[in-house]
Design a protein that fits this description.
The structure holds 2 protein chains of 2 kinds. By secondary structure, chain A is an all-alpha fold. Chain A has one domain. Chain B is α/β, with parallel strands linked by helices. In chain B, 40% of the residues lie in helices and 26% in strands. In chain B, strand 1 and strand 2 form a beta hairpin. Chain B is globular, with a radius of gyration of 19 Å. The chains are: A mainly alpha, B alpha/beta. At the A-B interface, helix 1, helix 4 and helix 11 of A face strand 1, helix 1, helix 2 and helix 3 of B.
Amino acid sequence: METTMRQTWAFLFRGYHLTRRYIGWVIVFNFYALVTSATVALIGVAAGNYQLTLTLVVGALLWNYLSWLYQEIAMSIAYERWEGTLEYTFMAPVSRVVHLLGVSLYSLINSVITSLIVLAGLVLFTDLNLRGANLPGVLVVVGVSTLAFVGLGLMAAVFPVMSAERGAEATHIFQGSLLLVSGVYYPIEVLPRWMQPLSAISPATYTLSACRKLFGVGMEGSTPERLAGAPLSAVTHELLVLALMGAVLLPLGLWVFVKIEAWAKRTGKLKRTG
Amino acid sequence: MQQPAIDVSNLRKCFRKRNGFRKSTEVWALDGVTFYVGEGETYGLLGPNGSGKSSLIRILSTLLIADVGEVRMRGLELPAQQEQVRRIIGRVSVDAAFYKKLSARENLLYTALLYGQKARDAEKRAMEILEQLGMENSKFSTPLEEMSRGMQQKISIARALVLNPPLLLLDEPTTGLDPKSRRDVQTFLENLKRKEGTTILLTTHDMAEAERLCARIGFLAQGKLVAEGTVEDLLKKANAQTLDDAFIKLTGEELLDEELVAAEN
């Protein structure tokens, strides 16, 4: 147990020191996330429609959190390949579960901090009143959907294992596809008909749908002065789907990663020399 | 007879190289390699680029899975018992792979934690190792990217040794080092063997290094172990005066060159 704790701490230790050394870039990325989210939210402000503003704010905030979490996990393997340290991690007597959950834990902490920064910025830019929103319910939904997104991140993390050059590109394509079909800034009904079924397999679709109800978007009785956030019972369907996705995607992500690691070791994809 | 620290039998590894969209050719990186390394012995593998040295080290490091053959490390079988094998090996590769923005201290502590060691104990041992390798303590907090290649390689050796493994796999650890750094590393390895009884498998291009450090040497060419023995054995077998000459005669490099010249003519 003590060994497992130390091994988990190793990934937090590494992540913390890398963040510290790349602090300039961390500030730039956070600034960019904040500005992008604010720019989207201001479309609602310009339209003078608080419901639209709230829809966009919830979309920007949640997409920021979920995509950051996904990307940090998926790209952690790409960073290791670029630095050449992946082989040393794979050589260490650390189980893949501890390795990947350690990486996910650091990514989660990072995503929460970034999302809090973006939330603070959005409140400043849009002057939104969140009174009446079911914020504890939002935290429950985000917590449950985190598991599904960690699972997706783990599955995407196999791309850099398969190819140092193309892997990172593939993780971004996958992330972009999720953004397109999940109804982050628009209702999924505006997508081409053939594309709409894809939204049903994205966990972000259910997270956004549930959180918008909990914030009070489109709810009867919601006014700019006081929102009418739905109770948690109103999003039971979304919660169940998200829980099921988490229960499937998390172990599936770990399983896929272990299988691809074994394949990479058989084919010499980690690095082929001499 | 005592069980060997490393026991490799009929090891074969093939890579597929793509030629266009549908065609691929097979390249045998290792082709029926058999050898052993005794406990506490330093064994050298000499071979040109592409001879299979790194593939062999990577199989022993659990980073590559052989197609055919058996590998036992202190009685543990690969790849079936790879988790246990990882606890008894340390590896230094030719390219010192680190988080270059992090300091030596941060990189070494990360490795120690990853292996479940106490950070304080690991830090103390790392400082001792670096001192023996002729490195100033003040460099301990310097980011790796600000260090010379020689210094980075010393940190790489410290990383492998901070775990105090009984088996050390060194893949061209002194390639690209200046003469002083090379001598520091070689002296350190001699002391390590004498004091700790560490078993070392060393691949190198440097004949003098192999002669100095290794009890026995194997010549690897085109994935085959073409000869092995003590320096005296190899000189006798090749009827040569120097290890350089013995290597050229026994690996057939000279013959290949002649064929190439003939083909060009």
